[in-house]
Amino acid sequence: MSHPTDGSCIFCKIVAGQFPCFKLFEDETTIAFMDINPVNPGHALAVAKGHWPTVDVIPTDVLGDVARTAQRVAKAALAALEPTGVNLLQSNGPGAGQSVPHLHVHILPRYPDDKVRL
Ligand code: 5GP
Ligand code: ZN
């Protein structure tokens, strides 16, 4: 299925197979892979295959697909890593701390006494 792409976007390059990732899951509209700079063990990203920067412009059905993939990865993390909890986080715009302008959801397992401060 065709989707919008941006040749200068790192996540578009990962989707296109032009840049490596540690892939966890892929379907027609989404991909999930490990974060290159994990905040905690098991820190992963669920990403739309299409280049939509933020929640206000992504089609609602694709946003639902990303949520379903994030849930799948969160379930796997809970089962495999036995964290004490898991955060799902999604940032929109530099003011919210978004550094890659291609919509993604962080799956962030939590552990006792970790250093994460949200
Ligand atoms: P944001 O700050 O936009 O919410 O999150 C972007 C995330 O993407 C960061 O946690 C960062 O470590 C991750 N990231 C940035 N570049 C790459 C990359 O090339 N590969 C992978 N796997 N993750 C990346
Ligand atoms: Zn992109």
From TrEMBL:
Histidine triad motif, short sequence motif: residues: 102-106
Annotated ranges, domain HIT: 10-117
Record protein name field: HIT family protein
UniProt organism field: Reyranella humidisoli
Residues of the full protein shown: 1 to 118 of 142
